[in-house]
Amino acid sequence: MSIISENIRYLRSRNDLTQEQLARRIGTKRPNIGAYEEARANPPREALIKLSQLFGVSIDQLLTTDLRRIRDTPSLDLGPAASPPPPPVFKPETPRPPQPIQKVVDTYLREKSQVQLVAQRVTLRKLNRLDYGPLPVVPPIVERRKDPVVLSEPVREVREAAGIRLVRRALLDDYLHKFRHPEFIRELPDFQWPFAGRGTLRAFEAGDDFVFPGAIVVGEKVEDWFTAEDGKHYLIVANHHGFLYRRIYNELKIKNTLLLSSDSPGVRSMELPVKDILEIWAVKGFFSQQLPEPALSIDRVRSLVDELRLELERVKR
């Protein structure tokens, strides 16, 4: 044990203080007081100053003098025992003397203005038109003739789109250059189709890449080309190629191209870049004056084989 540790323990015990109470007095934690008293740590300069002020001894005496041996020496003044400050005394407020009731009423009614009701006798008389002059003349309501309504181009396009416009192959070159002109589209022949939907429909005369050349193919306009579905039939209007009836395999997001495949054996597949595409129409149906050839069924093939066998037997006889 060191002198400073023994002095701190002695002064704390002499003043009946616990380690927690002493720690609060000098502004530190209780474990620090235990470390000071057990000589496991030396108090810092700030703690020494506060201990000196609290117990009334000098810092030199705390560090070098064993205060336990000179506790009975009258020349050493260890100061009175530390005691907590007295609790504050709260003095009750002196109640105000009661005020007269008339003074209270005057205080609350001071700012309110008094309203005086004045009665006045009013004489009513009959209204004379001459006092106010002649009555205003209301003009008669005349129904104006309505001017004819001039439809704007979008509305007129909707009104005239009741029929499906037909594009013949003879007008292929004109269509490639004027397909965006409303005047050119309105001059095309049109027809009615009971199965027309709400989309924009147009009919094209098919070429040799269709199963029935010369048929009328009806398509619905595809506004967003990225939505074209793989393996479905479309009619593509393209520069340098005209009208193409093909199955589409969409690679616009990958290569900016469309892979076109035909069901006709004599038509080759091709890759069409997006810069050559003018329009894409999803095929909804077709009209043709040709009837498809009947497909041979297995029963029909067996019947033909039996007929051929009978014919061979007849020849051998």
From TrEMBL:
Q: Where is the HTH cro/C1-type domain?
A: 8-62
Q: What keywords is this UniProt entry annotated with?
A: DNA-binding
Classification via InterPro entries: Cro/C1-type_HTH (IPR001387), Lambda_DNA-bd_dom_sf (IPR010982)
Q: Where is this region: Disordered?
A: 73-97
Q: Which residues form a coiled coil?
A: none
Q: Does the keyword DNA-binding apply?
A: yes
Question: This protein's superkingdom?
Answer: Bacteria
| Annotated GO MF terms | DNA binding
Q: Which Pfam families match?
A: HTH_3
Question: According to the UniProt entry, which residue ranges have a biased composition of type Pro residues?
Answer: 82-97
Protein name stated in the entry? DNA-binding transcriptional regulator, XRE-family HTH domain
Q: Which organism encodes this protein? A: Siphonobacter aquaeclarae
